[in-house]
Amino acid sequence: MQQGTLMRKVKSKSWKKQRYFKLQDDCMTIWYQSKRTGKTESAFSISDVETVREGHQSEVLQSLAEEFPPECCFTIVFYGRRGNLDLIAGSAEEAQCWVQGLRQLIDSRSFALTFALVSLTWICDWFQKADKNKDGRMNFKEVQHLLKMMNVDMNEDHALRLFQDADKSESGTLEGDEFVLFYKALTQREEVLSLFQEFSEDGKKLTLLELVDFLHQEQLEDGGTEEMAMELIDKYEPSETARARHVLSADGFLMYLCSPEGSIFNPQHRALWQDMNQPLCHYFISSSHNTYLIQDQICGQSSIEGYIRALKRGCRCLEVDCWDGPNGEPIVYHGHTFTSKIPFREVVSTLGNSKTSWENSSSPPPPMGTSPPSSHPQRGQAPWKSWALQSASLSPTPQELKHKILLKGKKIGRLEDMLDGPGDEVPDVSDDDNGTEAEEERRRAKVVLMNDAPITQHGSALQKDKETLAQVLSDCVIYCKNVSFRGFQEARSHSRPSEISSFSEAKARKLIRDAGNEFVRHNAWQLSRIYPSGMRTDSSNYSPQEMWNVGCQIVALNFQTAGMEMDLCDGLFSQNGRCGYVLKPPFMRDEETLFNPSDPSSREGLGPITLTIQVISGQQLPKVANSKDGAIIDPLVRVEIHGVPADQAHQETKYIENNGFNPRWNETLQFQLHVPELALVRFVVEDYDKTSRNDFVGQFTLAFANIKPGYRHIHLLSKDGTGIPPSSLFVHIRITE
């Protein structure tokens, strides 16, 4: 990569230009130049790259599938709204060199892998930005400019003193290691050092027993703390001598606190940790609405990129709206609107090639299909029919449905009728919602993909009325048969776990308000899908929390629209291996439950829990997008609780003037949670503005069940849910019953 490679940059089927790509010596920057002119066209930082996709995983590369083999093609995906970079290498070997190399560079910048390298990358990034004349040295004027860029409002005398202390060569400039010294002095964490010295007898190191005391008393780590302390020293202590003596220095202590083990998010819950053998209706399922749209609902662009992004985000319920297209080929778009159209064939190909999987499974998903899991057939029966007979009255489990795709749609008759063989009469086709608001729903079918984890997909039946529903399509609908909802008693008497009803957000809210407990019971044995109001033409979202409060499993959101609603979605599904399935609490899986979200006392179990959060400090917060050059933020922290109505709350700290680099709040916020099992906690950093609305800086959202107590770092995310290292908050968490 550092030697450089000639590759094709492609923008369309006709625009394919050769460019020379080269990784710079800093191992952080890639630039490319025109082969014809030799002029450097552009450059980008590894920190701007979200991921790398292999093969024909973009619309442009799919259009060139017959011309270039997939093993030579790859796509570089950037954070934010920057367009993807589609590249074609001269050979499969060259493509793999870049794909694997980029992935290693991307991984190495993450806090989760190496805090030291992140810091070094951050330092080098700032040095390059501030070194205006590119002479590899930085004078004091450039340092002052750098401080403004870094969100630091520092007294000039103090800045000069730090500069002179770091200028060991007394040259009046900072070079290489001298700038590192300056940066370390600038980023000295007094609050962490003070905590370190509380547990260190000599103030210079933590012995093994002192570290065990800290882990036990402050971090509330259960059992095996001595073994854990040894592991932390081996993993995070930078000094070989200290490691050999089984002690932790102040630098190692900070590295531990900034690591996954020091995160507010329980690292054990990052992996697949929940029981996946419960019925499908016992899980919340990550679900998207009009997945193909990446903009608004009226004139927006339809793109397979919508499916790729949703799958990468852990989405398991995808929506495919199919309509008749030219030459008998179905197309996908938002019917009766001006949204662009994409071939159904490309959508299916993208889903079939999806590499999404559970964390504990390495096998790629099979081609798209609808067969149930294998089973021992009864004599004279096809295997899938035998399995379906055994499960017709039960909801299958995510574990049973691995590698499967479920089609949600209309169906001729019942599953049992199909298994018993065709009768003399043709039964009515099942329908979806009632009322004009569901007119569009009636024209669709949904698909539920089951890769290594089940994906629930909502797809469209190509029919104009119920008489023309194709039998072959109907036969594909096994466990997600659309049925109209005609009341909870009717559903209990006549519906089956293999059926599903869809509700508009307004209809769902009315049912929650009028019959909250009945809705919870209904969702304990049957699937419910909630979709946004047709009035949300701008692709805005409703809050999914109120739907989760009654156990609705498939709460469909517009994944393309950033905001609090998608933060909640990402926060809930960031656990359990990001498989897209989260097990509902026990009192929501009981068909006879008394729980009603409007009455927290109906929940069985212990009384309210008190969550106490001390917001201590912030680290290297990003500047507000589109802010004036040199404008330094005035940050405040707001903590929001999203849960049942009695738990909904928010509190915020005071704002700190002109310090986005290392603000200190030291404020304590306290909340009472009546139903902690359903609570999500959202940390939001804003730039205070006394004359207008505060500007968003960063956020992090997680389920209360995933919070680790003690001194913890919260690694902030951008508005679109991507990491912004090394921006973080330092907090202390206490949970009491």
UniProtKB/TrEMBL annotation:
Extract the GO molecular function terms from the UniProt entry.
calcium ion binding; phosphatidylinositol-4,5-bisphosphate phospholipase C activity
> InterPro entries, per this entry?
C2_dom (IPR000008), C2_domain_sf (IPR035892), EF-hand-dom_pair (IPR011992), EF_Hand_1_Ca_BS (IPR018247), EF_hand_dom (IPR002048), PH-like_dom_sf (IPR011993), PH_domain (IPR001849), PI-PLC_fam (IPR001192)
Compartments in which it is found: Cytoplasm; Endoplasmic reticulum; Membrane; Nucleus
Recorded E.C. number(s)?
A: 3.1.4.11
Give residue ranges for domain EF-hand: 118-153, 154-189
**Catalysed reaction per UniProt?**
a 1,2-diacyl-sn-glycero-3-phospho-(1D-myo-inositol) + H2O = 1D-myo-inositol 1-phosphate + a 1,2-diacyl-sn-glycerol + H(+); a 1,2-diacyl-sn-glycero-3-phospho-(1D-myo-inositol-4,5-bisphosphate) + H2O = 1D-myo-inositol 1,4,5-trisphosphate + a 1,2-diacyl-sn-glycerol + H(+)
Report the domain of life of the source organism: Eukaryota
Q: Which metal ions or organic cofactors does this protein require, according to UniProt?
A: Ca(2+)
Q: What is its main location?
A: cytoplasm
- Put simply, this protein is called Phosphoinositide phospholipase C
Q: What is the lineage of its organism?
A: Eukaryota, Metazoa, Chordata, Craniata, Vertebrata
